[in-house]
Write a structure and sequence with these properties.
Layout lengths: L17 E4 L7 E5 L11 E4 L14 H9 L4 E4 L13 H20 L10 E5 L1 H12 L6 E5 L5 H6 L6 H6 L7 H7 L11 E6 L7 H13 L4 E6 L15 H11 L4
Parallel strand pairs: 3-4, 3-5, 5-6, 6-7, 7-8
Antiparallel strand pairs: 1-2, 2-4
Keywords: Hydrolase
Pfam families: BD-FAE
Protein name: Alpha/beta hydrolase
């Protein structure tokens, strides 16, 4: 493994098998990967990439993660979405793109990967800002999601704004702070949305410098108090990027967290 944990963001990985669109915008696309091997059809895994919702980060930096999930025998989709810093990115399109893509994927993936995708809603694997988007989709459109594996998610937008994570990333997404656009925070912040009954597994490293682990501790504690099916795996000595790096020491725990989410499949 590289000494630089960010190396995973640009590490070469096998190309996806097919890229399809779920809308007319160039960023409304999905990369699909066949599961390795000849096993039975399995639930679709949708990877929602992070990068603090910014245009300079796209789905390519999760190629290693997606390829590793496919190697475990899962059909995998990497969903792209409009991001801040380009026309059309930010509120509300960043969020609605993910909702639209996730809702369309069961049909699109079944057509593109015949015989490999089990019927039903997909499981979402979201990292960082992608973890926020996965939690958001599960809360507002639970009929389109089977469960969520949230890796170091930005699960409290108001707190992320207060902490100024990634130098104004939340304000860029929503158009201001909680006092400026309170309705947007109320609609988009997982911390204020009513938790559903979908299974959610959160994995967070205790040495994360991009998204503090305390955010996940608080989110999971609040969810459990409200009766949600939510679990936290806190990984000592793990930082932010090891969670999406199949060459990291954290990867076996991430794979185990996914298995726990998929225990009935």
């Amino acid at each position: 493994m590289s000494a630089d944990p960010r190396a995973v963001l640009s590490r070469p990985a096998p190309a996806p098998d097919v890229t399809i669109g779920y809308g007319d915008h160039p960023d409304q696309v999905v990369d699909l990967r066949h599961p390795v091997g000849n096993g039975p059809a399995r639930p679709l895994i949708v990877v929602v990439h992070g990068g603090f919702w910014r245009a300079e980060y796209d789905r390519r930096h999760t190629d290693a993660l997606a390829a590793a999930l496919a190697a475990l025998g899962h059909p995998v989709a990497q969903v792209e979405y409009r991001r801040t810093g380009r026309p059309g990115g930010g509120w509300p399109n960043t969020l609605t793109d993910v909702l639209t893509g996730v809702a369309a994927l069961p049909r699109l993936a079944a057509e593109a990967l015949p015989g490999r995708v089990a019927p039903g809603a997909p499981y979402l694997v979201g990292h960082s800002a992608g973890g926020h988007l996965a939690l958001y989709a599960a809360a507002v459109a639970p009929e389109t999601v089977a469960g969520v594996l949230a890796l170091a998610p930005v699960s409290n937008l108001a707190e992320a704004y207060r902490l100024d994570l990634d130098s104004g990333a939340v304000a860029a997404l929503l158009g201001g702070g909680p006092e400026d656009v309170p309705d947007r925070y109320a609609a988009a912040d997982p911390r204020t949305l009513v938790p559903g009954q979908l299974p959610v597994v959160v994995v967070h490293g205790s040495r994360d410098q991009q998204v503090p682990v305390g955010m996940s501790r608080d989110h999971v504690a609040a969810g459990r108090a409200a009766g949600a099916d939510i679990t936290l795996f806190e990984l000592p000595f793990c930082e932010h990027f090891g969670l999406i790096d199949p060459e990291s020491a954290a990867w076996p725990q991430v794979a185990e967290a996914l298995r726990s989410l998929l225990k009935d499949h």
